[in-house]
From TrEMBL:
<feature type="domain" description="Alpha/beta hydrolase fold-3">
    <location>
        <begin position="83"/>
        <end position="306"/>
    </location>
</feature>
<protein>
    <recommendedName>
        <fullName>Alpha/beta hydrolase fold-3 domain-containing protein</fullName>
    </recommendedName>
</protein>
<dbReference type="InterPro" id="IPR050466">
    <property type="entry name" value="Carboxylest/Gibb_receptor"/>
</dbReference>
<dbReference type="Pfam" id="PF07859">
    <property type="entry name" value="Abhydrolase_3"/>
</dbReference>
<dbReference type="GO" id="GO:0016787">
    <property type="term" value="F:hydrolase activity"/>
</dbReference>
<dbReference type="InterPro" id="IPR013094">
    <property type="entry name" value="AB_hydrolase_3"/>
</dbReference>
Length: 336
């Protein structure tokens, strides 16, 4: 007789955990939003000026990446900067090939003239942190091996990429990974690869004690207090709380920012984000540590607003702020 498994916990329609340890990430929210959490097949041909390909970076671990290559324009001869992307999802959900990322990073690759390498990160609770950090850093090491001519890749990157201009970018919890990978990279010699900049977008910075913005800002399908609490309890190392350095890099448990070798940062925040107060704490801590950090603020929108394709298409404020965000990222890349 087969025993029926029982639901142990659920997180805001995004994730369910059962008593046998299995995890179900089937979207159970509004059906009209389901398409954003579905995978988009890669396509070698150029569609709207961008070609995509899934590449296995490590056969042993099966670490993969979705690569976005913009089509060269007539007379365009320079190689493209590389944008290494870490997806969000509270370290527990989403994938690099989901539509919510495909629509925005296709647009970013095309408009900013960058190659985007989006890592398929291991997810909690099956793989607690620092697994996703290790995957992000392994992506940099793989790119270094390509730059050194030590690894084989079907010539997409070697022929088109500028390994002297590599940037990290991440959404939400992916923004946390940006900082962790940048800090780890600062301790290593990655030449001939050069880490030129870091772009955490709405990073998931919190403390054990609720901030004022967590209590006062509106919750959205992309971020609720339930998601913050439960995802982090599933993702952080066993026995750790939100004051852990990964989620509170400006806190007393974290390595002093002054001692880290970091590239220039563009910290992107939204003024209606639940986490804006702790994101601003990080910004002020970076300034105090004399780190090169710029602040980009999106007005009238909340956490990860630009990933919501429905709002990007239908809501004028989201449409405008998404265009402004892409323009701000492009400007930062062009400066570095």
């Amino acid at each position: 007789m087969v025993r029926e498994k029982k639901l142990v916990d659920e997180v805001s329609g995004w994730l369910r955990i059962y008593d046998d340890g299995s995890v179900d990430r089937t979207w159970t929210g509004p059906p009209e939003a389901k398409f954003m959490a579905e995978p988009v097949p890669s396509h070698d041909e150029f569609v709207d000026g961008v070609s995509t390909r899934d590449i296995i970076m490590c056969e042993k671990s099966n670490l993969k990446a979705r690569v976005y290559l913009p089509e060269k324009k007539l007379g365009e001869t320079e190689k493209f900067p590389i944008l290494v992307h870490f997806h969000g999802g509270g370290f527990c959900i989403s994938q690099a090939d989901w539509y919510m990322y495909h629509h925005i990073y296709t647009r970013l690759a095309r408009s900013s003239r960058v190659i985007c390498v989006s890592t398929f990160l291991r997810r909690a609770p099956e793989h607690r942190l620092p697994a996703a950090i290790d995957d992000g850093y392994s992506t940099l090491l793989w790119l270094r091996s390509l730059a050194q001519g030590e690894s084989y890749e079907p010539r997409w990157l070697k022929e088109n990429a500028d390994f002297n201009r590599v940037f990290l970018i991440g959404d939400s919890s992916g923004g946390n990974l940006v900082h962790e990978v940048a800090a780890r990279a600062g301790k290593a010699d990655l030449s001939p690869l050069r880490l030129a900049g870091a772009i955490p977008i709405h990073p998931g910075y919190v403390r054990s004690e609720r901030s004022r913005s967590e209590l006062e800002q509106p919750q959205t399908p992309f971020l609720t207090l339930d998601m913050v609490d439960k995802f982090l309890s599933l993702a952080l190392p066993v026995g750790c709380n939100k004051d852990h350095p990964i989620t509170c890099p400006m806190g007393p448990a974290a390595p002093p920012l002054e001692g880290l070798k970091l590239p220039p940062y563009l910290l992107c925040i939204a003024d209606q984000d639940l986490l804006i107060d702790t994101e601003m704490e990080f910004y002020e801590a970076m300034k105090t540590a004399n780190k090169a950090v710029e602040l980009f603020i999106s007005s009238g929108v909340g956490h990860s607003f630009y990933l919501n394709k429905i709002d990007v298409d239908m809501d004028p404020t989201t449409t405008k702020q998404t265009s402004n965000l892409i323009a701000g990222i492009k400007e930062f890349i062009n400066k570095h």
